[in-house]
Amino acid sequence: MNYTFVTLFSNLIEGYFKDSILKRAIEKGLLDINYLNPRDYSTNKHFKVDDTAVGGGAGMVMNPQPLFAALDDLKSKDENVHVVFLTPVAKPFVQNDAKRLAKKSHIAFVSGRYEGIDERVIEKYADEVFSIGDYILTGGELASLVLCDAISRNIEGVLGNAESLEIESFETPLLEAPSFSKPKIYDTLSVPSEYLKGNHSKIRSLKLALSECKTKFFRPKELKKHKAEQRLS
Ligand code: ADE
Fold this sequence. Notes:
Bound molecules: adenine
Strand order of the largest sheet: 2-1-6-5-7
Number of helices: 9
CATH class of the largest domain: Alpha Beta
Order of helices and strands: EHHEEEHEHEHEHEEHHH
């Protein structure tokens, strides 16, 4: 998978790939990361990339010219690049999107700074637009890293044996059951005794019950929906 981060601030992103799973995936040749700075494409004599909003409104908006030029250049080099914009004004990114996008060969993440990106850029170039949640970040860079991370772990070979893709939260409507590591008793706190007895069918039913508890507590609407779906099937 090729990723291109279209951003004014690649420094904000680079560090994430310097350790752990994604670093290993780059070393194994499974991921290739590139950066494209719209400022390098600005025809303004001071390399300006933003301006005040037409029609009024607070803050600066990213101009179309540098982004049109940067994205035209990118698309001229790879017509299959899938262009994703990050903005709070979009549909929420979910696990199914991560799995689907893991099958692409090249994704470009376009991050806005300031008050946003001139809408004409999004209209012309976006294959998809995502938000990572109902809050406003100072820019799209963190959001693009969130997508990149969630997508990458669905690419074959990125996760080692120790990190499994099976039975994770969001693979089913229920949240995942709690996990415990060793020692079995720590600071007088024990892991659930059923987990210790080795009866796998009992452990499975306990995990299901705990999953339902977690979902009821954190996502009560989802649990109701899940139960209603079970009754129908
Ligand atoms: N840029 C600023 N806030 C954002 C959000 N919540 N999701 C995606 N991109 C953003």
